[in-house]
Each structure stands twice: as structure tokens, then as C-alpha cells.
Amino acid sequence: MSNTIGTLLKITTFGESHGRAIGGIIDGCPAGVIITEDTIQEALQRRKPGQSDYTTTRKEDDKVELLSGVYEGKTLGTAIGFVIQNLDAHSGDYDLLKEVYRPSHADYTYDVKYGHRDYRGGGRSSARATACVVAAGAIAKQVVLQCTRQIKFTAPEVAVWVNQIGNLKANPASAPIYQEDVYASTLRCPDEKAEHAMADLIKEVKAKGDSLGGIIRGEFRNIEAGLGEPLFNKFQSALAQAIFSINAVHGFEYGLGFEYANHYGSEVNDAFVMEDERVVTKTNYSGGIQGGITNGMTITFNVAFKPTATIGAKQQTINAAHEELELKATGRHDACVLPRAVSIVEAFCWLVLADFILLRRTNRVEDI
Questions:
Q1: CA distances (Å), origin 70, targets 13, 28, 368
Q2: Mean pLDDT score of the chain, rounded to an integer?
Q3: 366, HSE (Cβ side, Cα atoms, 13 Å)
Q4: What's the CA gap between 82 and 67, in Å, rounded?
Q5: Spatial CB neighbours of 82, under 8 Å, sequence gap ≥ 6
Q6: Is the pTM of this model over 0.90?
Q7: CA-CA distance, 14 to 8, in Å (whole number)?
Q8: Angstrom distance (rounded) from CA 131 to CA 336
Q9: Which of 98, 165, 341, 362 lies 20 to 30 angstroms, CA to CA, from 9?
Q10: Is 119 exposed, middle or buried (0-12, 13-18, 19+ CB in 10 A)?
Q11: What is the pLDDT of residues 279-300, one digit of tens each?
């Protein structure tokens, strides 16, 4: 099982939903980066369960404990180890699912591949494991901000928000959108009118024992040109790989994405122009990436999430003995994962960006 992602800055995660703990190891972080546990904790608070009426009722403190790699508030250049305890696992809720294959869940595929699985809360396939990503992303953000400060770049920004839940779409009034404003919203949606409608829809669907999917939108701003590799490690490829590791993600597009299919090249080619002695593009249909390499424009992307697989409504399925049965799942689950997924997508953005900034330093002799 592959538990590691990244090229120079690598994160390896461990743990199951109802195990004793989850955690990770970050390798490749430069020495001298100022890190505080409060910074990591703040990020984890945004993702943790039990925050509102719209998320799972599981209560976890998600208190991170740094085990290595940081001393006197600075990274040592050695592996950073951290752990987050699981304190509110109700494993008994899942006894009925021990031999059952939940529709659209990983139960059957895990059994086929490994012949043995932890059925409690989904085990390794649970979104619980994404807390490790959020902790690592908080560290990667500090790497990015301090590396770019040293080389006198404008501080990069990442903004990620809920843009659609079910068939309800947001129409934010102002641009650009800032992440602190997104996190001030319960549903992580910058459109207050749409958020109220989304909240009502989630409550309605949850009462029926059903679930909802939607779309998260993201942007990278103030990103230097030249990040990414031309072939097998394109910036968008690495970002898509990271994003697709999030549970329930079923679609990723950047720039104009699938809408490209409806246009002529003459309509959507991005022309280069000069602006304040800087090369920019007149339009940004490419979404800030060309040839797999950032061009300095804003990077834009959308992520599609399917509805939560485990629901309280009755469904037909089979068990490990291939017997047909009717399932009404119990346990604590999000009726819509998108509000909590915003912090996970943001974390992966910082991880991918930090990795490519460090890689850029190895591309040219003058950067070493």
C-alpha cells in the first residue's frame, strides 16, 4: 500500500479510523523553518469532526504532538514525526458491517486486494486519515512562506472554498476570495445567500438518511513562473494526484477544463503581453499552467466530490458470503463532506507548492 506522496518534500501517513492513533512523517523539510504547534493546531481545528450540525457528530480533539524534527521552534532538517490520538471511536457501531459490502464504499475492493480489512469506520479508507494531511499542509505552508520571503517573492496565497453543494451553486460577490473569510463561514462558502440554501438542503437530505456531493474551487495566487516539470511531474499532474487521494473525489479540472471542448483555439488561446515589465497572459483560460509549468498567472481548479457513500437510507447490497441483503448503515457520518474537505484540499495545495518550490532550486545552478 502506498502511503507516501511528494518528490523532495515527502509525507508518509499511518493509522486507521478506529486505531489508537494516526500520524505521519515529513521528510525533506529544510532546516531553520519556524514552526509552532499552534499553527498546526489551528489548521486541524478547521477540519476536525463535530464542528457543526452539518458534520459527523464524532468528537475528536485532534491534538497534534510533534515527536521529532523540530527543536526550539525551528525545523532541524531531519524527519518530522507527529501523532494525533483517536479518542472518540465507537467501534461497536460498525459490528453489523463486518461482513457487509457497503454500496460505493471500499469494503469489497479492500477484501479483494488484501483479503483482510479493518471494517471499523472504514479503517484506512476513512477520511479520518486526512487529518495527517492537514497537519503536514500547515508545516508546508510555513516552508513556502519562509522560502519565498528569502528570495523576495510576493507571498503566495491559496484560497479554497465550497462552490457547489447538490445543485446549488455559489456566486461570490467579491474577488479575490481570501481563506480567512472562507473559514469564517460554517459551510466554507463565500456566498452567504447560497450558504443558507445549502444548509437547508443538507438538513433536509440528512433527515432522509441520504447524502450530497458538490464542487470545491481553488486558486493559487502570486505563484512564481517556472514551477513544474514538462513531462511526468507536471504541476497540474502532481496537484491532481494529491487531490485524487482524498476520499470521495471523482473529478479534477484546471483552467477552463472540460469547457475547452466547446471552443475554437482562436477563442481560448492565452496571448502573452507585457504588464509593468512582467510577462503575463491577456486571458487565463490555461489556469496558470502551460506545458505542465506555472506561468505566473493565477492557478485555478475545480474538484468534484461524490455524495458520502455510507448513508442511513436502506440500500440493497451483498455480504462476504455473496448473500443479498438490505443495509441501513449506522454510525456517525457527514451528510456532505465538502465543508470539512476544504481544509484538506488547501493542505494538499501547500504540500504540492512547497515540493515544487524546493524542486525549482535543483533545476538551475544559480538557484542552488
A1: 18, 13, 24
A2: 90
A3: 1
A4: 5
A5: 23, 24, 25, 26, 40, 64, 65, 66, 67, 132, 135
A6: yes
A7: 19
A8: 17
A9: 341
A10: buried
A11: 999 999 999 999 999 999 999 9
Burial of 212 (0-12, 13-18, 19+ CB in 10 A): buried
Residue listed under C-alpha cell 478506529: 18
Coil, strand, or helix at residue 366?
helix
Tens-digit pLDDT profile for residues 187-228:
999 999 999 999 999 999 999 999 999 999 999 999 999 999
Calpha distance 99→265 (Å, rounded): 53
List phi, psi (to 5°) of 366: -75, -15
Residue 119 CB contacts under 8 Å (≥ 6 apart), including other chains: 94, 97, 98, 107
In a 3-state reduction of DSSP, which class is residue 139?
helix
Distance CA 44, CA 132 (A): 9
Question: Which candidate, 55, 44, 52, 58, places its Cα nearest to that of 94?
Answer: 58
pLDDT (average), residues 90-103: 74
CA of 189: how far to CAs of 8, 177, 194, 196, in Å? 33, 10, 8, 10
List the grid coordinates of 44.
486541524
Q: CA-CA distances (angstroms) from residue 322 to 7, 69, 103, 330?
A: 42, 49, 14, 21
Q: Are 79 and 42 in contact (CB under 8 A)?
A: no
Predicted confidence band at 125 (pLDDT cuts at 50, 70, 90)?
confident
